[in-house]
């Protein structure tokens, strides 16, 4: 097993947090040095899917360290080369747009910017209701960006939410390994559930 330092960043697709926590557990089992990162909005928003404080406490329990939850705390990731690979799971349409446009206004986008400056892989596990609508252009732009890799994704509810895309979170470890070798896992586009 490689001794990779992994960042695992959460954005606000709250309905996927249970699956994202399971993915974080698996990543931590494979690579024990995991730094949790959470967007400021996610760290402060209670939803019908759970209490923000409980999610933060669970991230800390899994990783045995407090999540990074501010731009200021995320900035040293680059200069100090704190991570070998950074996973954003779930990655919302809002964060996809910011990454594609180079906007750095949250702990997650700062972590990504700081990490990418070192030429190291960024792994995106998309979860957005507009993946085949307004976010499609941002997915396309990021697919073409150096050192950015996608966890294979699919339409999660083609009839009820025809533009919604969600990554197969179970494939995060496989995607991390491929990204560390400079490869995109194929196929990127999976069949519907």
Q: Could you describe the 3D structure shown?
A:
This protein is an alpha/beta fold and 193 residues long. It has helices at residues 17-30, 40-44, 52-63, 71-74, 93-101, 107-116, 136-143, 172-180, and strands at 6-10, 34-38, 85-91, 122-128, 148-150, 153-155, 165-167. Helix 7 (136-143) links the parallel strand 4 and strand 5. It is globular. This is Dipicolinate synthase subunit B. Residues 5-165 form the Flavoprotein domain.
Descriptors:
Dipicolinate synthase subunit B, 37% helix, 7-stranded mixed beta sheet, globular, alpha/beta, 8 helices, 193 residues, 7 strands
List the helices and strands and how they pair.
Blueprint: E1 6-10, H1 17-30, E2 34-38, H2 40-44, H3 52-63, H4 71-74, E3 85-91, H5 93-101, H6 107-116, E4 122-128, H7 136-143, E5 148-150, E6 153-155, E7 165-167, H8 172-180
Mean pLDDT: 92
Number of helices: 8
Order of helices and strands: EHEHHHEHHEHEEEH
Largest β-sheet summary: 7 strands, mixed
The number of distinct β-strands equals 7
Low-confidence stretches: none
Helix content: 25-40%
Shape: globular
Radius of gyration: 15 Å
Estimated share of beta-strand residues: 15-25%
Protein name: Dipicolinate synthase subunit B
Domain Flavoprotein: 5-165
InterPro entries: Dipicolinic_acid_synth_B, Flavin_trans-like, Flavoprotein
Pfam family, one: Flavoprotein
Short characterization:
With 193 residues, the chain is α/β, with parallel strands linked by helices. 37% of the residues lie in helices and 17% in strands. The relative contact order is 0.16.
């Amino acid at each position: 097993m490689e001794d990779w330092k992994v960042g695992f960043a959460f954005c606000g697709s709250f309905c996927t947090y249970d699956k994202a926590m399971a993915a974080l557990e698996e990543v931590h089992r494979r690579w024990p040095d995991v730094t949790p990162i959470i967007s400021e909005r996610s760290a402060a928003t209670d939803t019908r899917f759970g209490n923000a404080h409980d999610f933060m406490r669970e991230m800390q329990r899994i990783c045995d360290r407090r999540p990074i939850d501010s731009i200021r705390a995320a900035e040293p990731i680059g200069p100090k080369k704190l991570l070998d690979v950074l996973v954003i799971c779930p990655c919302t349409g809002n964060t996809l747009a910011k990454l594609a446009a180079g906007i750095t206004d949250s702990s997650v986008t700062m972590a990504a910017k700081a990490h990418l400056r070192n030429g190291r892989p960024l792994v995106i596990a998309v979860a957005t209701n507009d993946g085949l609508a307004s976010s499609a252009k941002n997915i396309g732009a990021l697919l073409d960006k150096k050192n950015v890799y996608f966890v294979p994704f699919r339409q999660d509810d083609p009839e009820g939410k025809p533009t919604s895309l969600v990554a197969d979170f179970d494939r995060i470890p496989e995607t991390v390994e491929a990204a560390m070798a400079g490869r995109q896992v194929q196929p990127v586009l999976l069949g519907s559930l």
